[in-house]
Design goal:
Elements lengths: L1 H6 L21 H16 L3 E11 L7 E10 L2 E8 L3 E5 L3 E6 L4 E6 L8 H7 L4 H4 E5 L12 E5 L5 E10 L6 E10 L4 E11 L17 E4 L2
Parallel strand pairs: 6-12
Antiparallel strand pairs: 1-2, 1-11, 2-3, 3-4, 4-5, 5-6, 7-8, 8-9, 9-10, 10-11
């Protein structure tokens, strides 16, 4: 369950590059601050968001990565991960906790977001609620990229949270000014690497609030996670 949540975590459209007036690639603390400011600006304009996603988990000592696909939704700080492949699962997330529903098992796992590991930070990244420079030391993942390569930002947690680093790919947001996150790669302390890529993003299309309300089906067991 913890590893599933660690996956969480927005369009391969127009990739951004920090450049100066002469058109030269610029890699500096100031350019990082500008990118972060544009990410915050982008998410401040998002009322709701819908996207397809692909998640790939490379598990330590396993040769074959685990791949899952589905749809991702955000509205007013709430999230829904609707997994379609390889099996149907749903994760409902709000500011206080999450519900993890597995129809085949007829079970709902209920837990709070947070705790000593601060594992909720990757969730907050994707909801736009996290101030990046508050909880992370930010730098470029690649200092001297090949021309035309995407900008990758390395986020190292300022306090222990079970993660060594998070690498995000910011891109220009469709329909609004600012940047959003196209890809999140989580490098965990246990050696696992989780990658979430988001495509076909739709912003501010008026998602129904009811989409984020989970009604526990009859006959489904509810378990409280420690």
């Amino acid at each position: 369950m913890k590893s599933m949540l660690s996956l969480v975590f927005i369009l391969s459209l127009f990739t951004i590059y920090p450049i100066n007036a002469q058109g030269q690639d610029v890699r500096s603390d100031e350019s990082i601050k500008e990118i972060v400011a544009q990410i915050h600006a982008g998410y401040n304009k998002i009322n709701d968001l819908k996207s397809n996603f692909v998640q790939t988990v490379e598990i330590m000592d396993f040769n074959t990565p685990y791949v899952s696909k589905g749809q991702f939704f955000i509205k007013k700080g709430k999230m829904l991960w609707d997994y379609q492949e390889p099996s149907k699962q749903q994760i409902f997330v709000d500011g206080g906790g999450y519900l993890f529903y597995v129809p085949d098992h007829k079970q709902v796992i209920r837990s709070k977001v947070g705790g000593q590991a601060d594992s909720h930070l990757p969730l907050n990244l994707l909801s736009g609620r996290e101030q990046l420079d508050k909880d992370f030391i930010i730098s470029y993942e690649i200092e001297n990229p090949v021309p035309g390569a995407p900008t990758l930002l390395r986020l190292v947690p300022k306090k222990r949270m079970g993660l060594i680093k998070i690498v995000i790919t910011p891109v220009k947001a469709p329909n609004i000014e600012g940047l959003i996150i196209d890809k999140v790669v989580l490098h965990e302390e246990n050696g696992n690497i989780s990658t979430s890529s988001f495509k076909e993003i739709e912003i501010n299309q008026g998602l129904d609030d009811a989409l984020f309300v989970f009604k526990i089906p009859k006959g489904v067991e509810v378990l409280n996670a420690p």
